[in-house]
Amino acid sequence: MTLDKDYTVGGTGYLQNPKDIGHGYDKANSGPAKGKDGKLTWHFNAPMVHDFAWGGADPDFIHDVYNGANGVKLHFLYKDNDAIKENWKKLQPKTNEMLKYFNEHIGEYPYKQYSVIQGGDGGMEYAMCTLITGERSYGSLMGVTAHEFAHSWFNHILATNEAKHEWMDEGFTTFISNKAMAYINGEDEGTANSGSYRGYLGLANSGKEQPQTTHADRYEYNGAYGASAYNKGATFLAQLGYIIGDEKRDEVIKEYYNTWKFKHPEPNDFKRVAERVSGFDLEWYLRDWTMTTNVIDYSIENLSSLDGMSVVSLKRNGLMPMPLDIKVTMNDGSEKWFYIPLEEMRGEKAVPNNWTVLNDWAWAYPTYELELDGVDMRSIKSVEIDPMNNMADVDKENNNWSLQE
């Protein structure tokens, strides 16, 4: 690529002739090389990528290089603008923290460079680089960088077809970048994707949802596409932790990456890895969540007493089945926890020793009687389905029962 010698460029690949270019590629703060006839010719090489981009071509760019984890050089190219310099300087060590988080929780980044370049019209991922509009708040700059950088794993390395399976690209990226941001900012990773749940629930209750098997170009509404790809896709992974356990879910993500990097996986490939790691049958989860618009909706219908035994009557109102976590709070403040596995998943997640594991709930039965042996109904203060809000139930209002109401 031959340009006027004053233009600084960043992008996909490794610059092959840094001494002939300068611009901070040969040594820190170097200016442009001499060139020929006022021009420089840039040579980039990018192995194992399925797209590429160059950005910059700007005579007013600052180019910083940060030595990141595992020998990865992180390049930052941004305008020489006093209003944004501080944010772009602060971003650099945080981007390295993102790299370390993604390496640990997905798998090692296989390249030795990544460039964050001011440009574009928002934030857009490319192989080994991203273009981001730079005149934004520090929090926004950091958040967009985390999302676009995470795309290096969930798109460019795994290389799913994002027109056919956009939720595997945008959704998985949203899930892991939200967790990375929470970790880096010292916040609760367990609630990092609560916004994704809210976005999905808004879609599910909007009447505009289409199945995630819909081609990206065939959504009737752009908003429905966005909520399905980003929010419902992220909720798929977050909720998988509720089904098989967070530790198993995290193990699935790493095994999925190691098994399928550079191989263009499809949804069934992810499901098979998840089944192999967890020991669960997850056909029902992939089917109902991605191939239909069936919703999760469970309710507590009644609390009664039978021969001195308390009975909680539960009902599945939605067409999508799920296992249930249930908390019973007693008048003295003590708690009793119960776990009802779903028969169709052919497995049980690990639960604390003080939980009671009950008989499976078969999908064919819309109701279930939870029998509390030795528990006087009058000693119960409340009963709650999914008290930790890990299940995307479309109507939380009927998930609680209290004798005081």
UniProtKB/TrEMBL annotation:
Cofactor note: Binds 1 zinc ion per subunit.
Location of the active site: E148 (proton acceptor), Y230 (proton donor)
Alphabetic keyword roster: Aminopeptidase, Hydrolase, Metal-binding, Protease, Zinc
Cofactor(s) demanded: Zn(2+)
Molecular functions (GO terms): aminopeptidase activity; metallopeptidase activity; zinc ion binding
Domain Peptidase M1 membrane alanine aminopeptidase positions: 97-289
Gene3D superfamilies: Neutral Protease Domain 2 (1.10.390.10)
Domain of life: Bacteria
Residues at which Zn(2+) binds: H147, H151, E170
PANTHER family (alphabetical): LEUKOTRIENE A-4 HYDROLASE
Name under which the protein is recorded: Zn-dependent aminopeptidase
